[in-house]
Amino acid sequence: MMKEPLLQASELSRYFGTEVAVNNVSFTIHKGEVLGFLGPNGAGKSTTMRMLSGNLAPDNGQIIINGVDLLDHPKQAKAHIGYLPETPPLYKELTVAEFLQFCARLNAIDKQHQKAAIDSAIERCGLTNVSNRLIGNLSKGFQQRVGIAQAIIHSPAVVILDEPTSGLDPIQIREIRQLIRDIANEHSVILSTHILPEVQMLCDRVQIISHGQLMFNDSIDALSQKMQASSLLLAFEQPMLAEKMRHIPGIENIDTLSDYRFRVHYHPDTNPTQSLLQLAVNNAWQLSMLMPEQHSLEDVFMKIIQNEDTDA
Ligand SMILES: Nc1ncnc2c1ncn2[C@@H]1O[C@H](COP(=O)(O)OP(=O)(O)OP(=O)(O)O)[C@@H](O)[C@H]1O
Fold this sequence. Notes:
Helix content: 25-40%
Largest sheet: 6 strands, mixed
Strand order of the largest sheet: 6-7-8-3-9-10
CATH superfamily of the largest domain: P-loop containing nucleotide triphosphate hydrolases
CATH topology of the largest domain: Rossmann fold
Order of helices and strands: EEEHEEHEHHHEHEHEEHEEEHEH
Number of strands: 14
Number of helices: 10
Shape: elongated
Bound molecules: adenosine-5'-triphosphate
Organism: Methylophaga thiooxydans DMS010
Number of domains: 2
Distance between the termini: 30 Å
CATH architecture of the largest domain: 3-Layer(aba) Sandwich
Radius of gyration: 24 Å
Protein name: ABC transporter, ATP-binding protein
Keywords: ATP-binding, Nucleotide-binding, Transport
Family: Belongs to the ABC transporter superfamily.
Oligomer: single chain
GO molecular function: ATP binding; ATP hydrolysis activity
CATH class of the largest domain: Alpha Beta
């Protein structure tokens, strides 16, 4: 039997004026899961995260967290939720330790447990060396760590992170992703992002949201399958002729990109990779690259949306 979900959102909708930002969205998250919320800018991710965290009332729908109805019992339900908004709520004139002290009180952590909670959040988020620095003087990456620390300080069951790597440089992005992996060992995580590889790196399951509606809800593996295009990019060290490959079973078409580079389109049921490699070895073709191509996220959106249309 499937265990009770940790968080269950049913038929959530939210309007801004006559515009529908989130349209009848339902989903669940179970213990230990990292759920990716993937969608382009304006798709309704932040609006959904704000509703899940109890910071924005839905116009319709229900949110149950750890068995508690968020709309009926916001205080109890919110105790199970940690939330990092798109723009972190930091007080830049406080030190890291002072700010987390404030957050511990805000989250109604017992006085005798506050210090342990703060120390643990500082330690887990790699803030030990900067705990006495003013937040305003920290790099964006470290400010984001503080944002994550305030989201986990009360040991919530579910941590909601809204675009946690946006605006960071590549090194900071790598560090924050590692921190999210660590966080996911102890909490269920809902991660909103418009970056597909981020979802592929961090999440177990992905939901794609577009124009306020959920278009896809499946495992990362299922998404990767959808991403798989039926084409390969080939490069050779020496000039090559497309004709030499055309007879290989499965190959339907070859684009000659240069004397050295080709795009091979194949029938989805017959991947010619093995045959190509065999031929390359037998004929001493100096193959320097053979790369399966992926659809772009935009292509996958289009495919998913078209499938929905034909299914309906
Ligand atoms: N406070 C608001 N007032 C009016 N419209 C809003 C408000 N907040 C969001 N919207 C609209 O709702 C839609 C969804 O916005 P939302 O911020 O949830 O998208 P998003 O997927 O998080 O994108 P982004 O990454 O750009 O924040 C957009 O069309 C946006 O303009």
